[in-house]
Amino acid sequence: MNLQLFSEERTEKATPRKRQKAREKGQVFSSRELNSALLLFTGFLLIKITGKNLITNSMDFFEYILTDVINLDIFNIQSIKAFFYEVIIFIAKGLAPIALGLCAVGIIANYMQVGFVISFEPLSPKLERINPLEGFKRIFSKRGLLELVKSIVKILGVAYIVYTVINKYRTYFSLMLDMQLTDTLSLTAGIAFEIGIKASAILLIIAAVDYFYQWREYETSLMMSKQELKEEYKEVEGNPQIKSRIRQVQRQMARSRMMQNVGKADVVITNPTHYAVALGYDASTNPAPVVLAKGADKVAEKIKQIAIKEDIPIVENKMLARTLYKTVEVGDMIPESLYNAVAEVLAFIYSLKERGFS
């Protein structure tokens, strides 16, 4: 059995890095059906809310056309300006609230699904978009079949709503001939509103189902194989072997610098075999002695060899050496709790130097 095949199967959820890369490429999840259904539903609600005002404005505008516009001199600049001024007012009063409401809903619905994304990659030309074979594949693909079924369901649903509503009001159609114009417009608007709201509700249900299906397809398309996860980990964290080698080189460089500082020490305190700590004291720069180097086992032996070579005193103090090694880092001053013990050692060393001993 080829185990490599299992590593290439997409069985893992997408990582945040994979999702971010997809967003940068413009590959985001968005249901156009949901946006369209929300806009249609909102449009009919806005028409219902502003319907009376829209009918009133329309009647006033038609009255203006039939009374005042007929008497205007169309070749007069002032008359043309007045006419266009009335047209703008009619549009602003009747259609602007609906247009602004639809724009707001469209922006909010899209933002809730996608967020704020700017990507020009979807606009870049791709040869597969004009390839007839790729086009046929898209038409007869699983997605194409789903879109066909979805369109048929929408048509049947809307047709059923239109039929039931018209059948409900069929007795009123013969009475419209005897109604006033405002009553006829009101009844027609009511029928149209009922058809629109019910049809929008059907489309919203279909859009909700489509939303979850599209979300599932999008998540599936982002899934990663185990090999892809490993490759991404290497990109983000770096190759483990390379990182291990870098850490090894860094430790060697730090140890080399530490060994160079042993020559500046005033004394090396040992365990005597397991630990070695090199201390240096300069009253003009530090108020307390500083650990210049420390090590255990082989490193401790190396520190003692350098101390012997540089003629640096070596003092055996098991407890002090162990405490310094475990509690003080290289480059740090010794803590106050060790002042007395270290001072005794340094005083002993300085007294030996004054007497000419090394």
Task: Write a structural description.
- There is one protein chain.
- The protein has 358 residues and is α+β, with helices and mostly antiparallel strands.
- The chain has 2 domains: 13-118 and 127-234, no CATH class; 242-354, 3-Layer(aba) Sandwich (name from scop).
- Helices cover 67% and strands 7% of the residues.
- It is built from 14 helices and 6 strands.
- The chain has helices spanning 4-7, 16-24, 32-67, 77-94, 96-114, 132-139, 142-168, 170-173, 181-222, 226-237, 240-262, 298-309, 318-327, 339-354; strands spanning 10-12, 224-225, 267-270, 275-280, 290-296, 314-316.
- A 4-stranded mixed β-sheet has the order 5-4-3-6, sandwiched between helices. Strands 1-2 form a two-stranded antiparallel sheet.
- Strand 3 (267-270) and strand 4 (275-280) form a beta hairpin.
- The longest helix is centred in the middle third of the chain and has 42 residues, at 181-222.
- The chain is elongated, with a radius of gyration of 42 Å.
Compact overview of the structure:
This protein has 358 residues and is an alpha+beta fold.
Strand segment count: 6
Characterize the overall form: elongated
Domain tally:
2
Q: In what order do the strands lie side by side in the largest sheet?
A: 5-4-3-6
Order of helices and strands: HEHHHHHHHHEHHEEEHEHH
Mean pLDDT score: 77
Q: Ends: how far apart? A: 73 Å
Main sheet attributes: strand count, strand direction, barrel closure: 4 strands, mixed
The helicity comes to 55-70%
- Assess the beta-strand content as a share of residues: 5-15%
The DSSP helix count reads 14
- The secondary-structure class comes to alpha+beta
Low-confidence stretches are: 1-7
Gyration radius, in Å? 42 Å
Keywords: Bacterial flagellum biogenesis, Bacterial flagellum protein export, Cell membrane, Cell projection, Cilium, Flagellum, Membrane, Protein transport, Transmembrane, Transmembrane helix, Transport
Protein name: Flagellar biosynthetic protein FlhB
Function: Required for formation of the rod structure in the basal body of the flagellar apparatus. Together with FliI and FliH, may constitute the export apparatus of flagellin.
Membrane topology: Multi-pass membrane protein
